[in-house]
Each structure stands twice: as C-alpha cells, then as structure tokens.
Design a protein that fits this description.
By secondary structure, the protein is an all-alpha fold. The protein is built from 4 helices and no strands. The model has no long low-confidence stretch (mean pLDDT 89).
Length: 76
C-alpha cells in the first residue's frame, strides 16, 4: 500500500540511527511491527490479570539455588 505521510525529520533520523536501518520505509515498518508486538504483549498480560496463583512462594524460592540459575544461564 502506498501512503504519503509527513514525518518529523529529526525523529526519523534518530530512529534510523538507533535501528541501523537505511531507509525511512524500513524504519517506519519496523516501528509499526514493534508497536503491534508490544501492544499485543501488553494486552496478553492484561488478560492474565486476576487469574490468580495458588502455591507457596517460599517453596518455590527454596527449591531454586543460585547455582541452578547460573547453570541455566551458562546453558543458554
């Protein structure tokens, strides 16, 4: 779809520099994709609110050790 829009030159230049993208089109498309992804995540998190959790946080904490976390990080 072809669309003409006015963009803030400084803002688009900063976005292109941060992303490393070389065209305005690619930068705008990335921004839109990131927006959709982030808002989708936010919506999914909001849908999880109120579902509750039953369990004992102390048991979970006690079952994990710093060594377990370090070995998981090393495996990744």
């Amino acid at each position: 779809m072809r669309t003409n829009i006015e963009l803030d030159d400084a803002l688009i230049a900063e976005a292109m520099e941060i992303t490393g993208l070389s065209t305005k089109k690619a930068t705008v498309e990335k921004a839109l994709r990131d927006l959709v992804e982030n808002l989708g995540r936010r919506k999914a998190l909001q849908e999880l609110r109120g579902i509750g959790w039953s369990g004992d946080l102390e048991d979970v904490r006690d079952s994990w050790s710093v060594d377990d976390i370090k070995s998981q990080d090393a495996a990744e």
